[in-house]
Design goal:
The chain is mainly beta and 366 residues long. It has one domain (5-286): Jelly Rolls. The chain is built from 4 helices and 19 strands. A 7-stranded antiparallel sheet has the order 4-5-13-7-11-3-14, covered by helices on one side. Strand 16 (302-309) and strand 17 form a beta hairpin. The longest helix is centred in the N-terminal third of the chain and has 14 residues, at 76-89. It is globular and about 50 Å long.
């Protein structure tokens, strides 16, 4: 089975079953084969998503929503509690919340709210025992060397290590707990089925640029390339904290190698009741469409940025034109926090081969 254009998988039917002994796929990576002898089976549809009747009832479009308390009180105390807990759970790994498990802490309660919101129209077709939310937090201090979140594809990291294949969540999400730091940049391009598939020479005609706003929730197709490069951070955010809660939605499939947050550490976190009034709302926020490279009057100024990424961080080079960003005060005065980017003519974004690193282990994106 070969990867087709745009991330579709060429096959005689609309879906294919993949096994660890399938001779058409590598079962080892730089880190070596798993050696566990364990088998697995996952069925992907023609779009490279984990298959199921529920996929027709999910919204894979990039969307912006907001958390707000039911009683219309201030959002600030809720976010303060979540930021405090984020500092206690930032351990460079993700955790699993099964769909049929009652949340044990405030962060799990928010993850459950996100899962429930995005799956509400498909719940009758979902196996809740095999579905759930993968969640983790990111903390970055603006101006520090490690502020950048490199471009990457969300995936089952263990399957990459043990079988060399890409299996993605159905929906990826970012919830901003502070209003500081680099914007999230999403590019509508996908990886191949095999982790080693060549994704160079692919062009991208659409993307999204989302600036952090406390309480803002960004959801998008779990197959898309995304990151948060620090060179796009507004100058006024220097030394401030960028805090986000990441929740990936997996249906009828549990990513390997992730577990519940340790029970012995739950008591140190806020209880679910601390955020019981918080719920996701669609407040009508619409991304401002911006076309780069359009001929004629009103051409938007832009800069072409280059970002290396890949298994060890350097194999691919993303070249992407992005608008010249003004201060966040300017964004607010213009009434937008999210840009729907369209790349036209000479302004298309592209992924190109980059000089590979001579040696080194694959880097995981936490």
């Amino acid at each position: 089975m070969a990867a087709g254009g745009g991330g579709d998988y060429a096959s005689a039917s609309s879906s294919s079953s993949l096994h660890d002994d399938d001779s058409s796929h590598s079962d080892s990576m730089d880190s070596g084969s798993s050696g566990s002898g364990e088998s697995f089976e996952v069925t992907l549809d023609a779009h490279g998503r984990i298959a199921g009747a529920f996929t027709s009832k999910l919204n894979f479009n990039t969307r912006v929503l907001f958390f707000a308390p039911k009683n219309a009180s201030s959002l600030k105390p809720y976010l303060s509690a979540l930021v405090s807990d984020a500092s206690k759970t930032f351990v460079q790994e993700s955790f699993w919340l099964p769909a049929n498990l009652k949340p044990r802490c405030a962060l799990e309660a928010i993850a459950k709210e996100i899962y429930t919101f995005h799956t509400k129209d498909a719940r009758d077709d979902i196996d809740t025992a095999a579905s759930g939310a993968e969640w983790w937090v990111q903390l970055r201090t603006v101006g520090e060397k490690k502020e950048t979140i490199s471009f990457h594809f969300d995936k089952d990291e263990e399957l990459v290590d043990t079988h060399g294949i890409n299996v993605h969540p159905h929906i990826s999400t970012v919830t901003y707990l502070t209003s500081r730091g680099a914007p999230t940049t999403i590019l509508e391009t996908t990886a191949g089925f095999s982790y080693e598939d060549d994704i160079s020479a692919s062009t991208v005609t659409r993307g999204t640029l989302s600036t952090p706003v406390a309480g803002k929730h960004l959801a998008f197709d779990g197959r898309y390339l995304h990151g948060a490069p620090s060179n796009l951070t507004p100058d006024e955010d220097e030394c401030e904290l960028r805090c986000t809660l990441l929740v990936n939605i997996w249906l009828n499939f549990k990513p390997t190698g992730i577990d519940l947050f340790p029970q012995e550490e739950i008591d140190a976190l806020a209880a679910p009741s601390a955020v019981a009034d918080l719920h996701l709302h669609d407040n009508g926020d619409v991304a401002r469409r911006l076309t780069l490279g359009r001929q004629g009057g009103g051409r938007q100024s832009y800069h072409v940025h280059e970002y290396p990424f890949g298994p060890t961080g350097v194999e691919h080079l993303l070249r992407v034109p992005l608008p010249s960003l003004e201060s966040k005060q300017h964004h607010a005065s213009q009434g937008w926090t999210t840009l729907d980017l369209r790349f036209a003519r000479e302004c298309v974004a592209s992924v190109q081969p980059n000089k590979p690193q001579a040696s080194g282990k694959r880097r995981r994106t936490p």
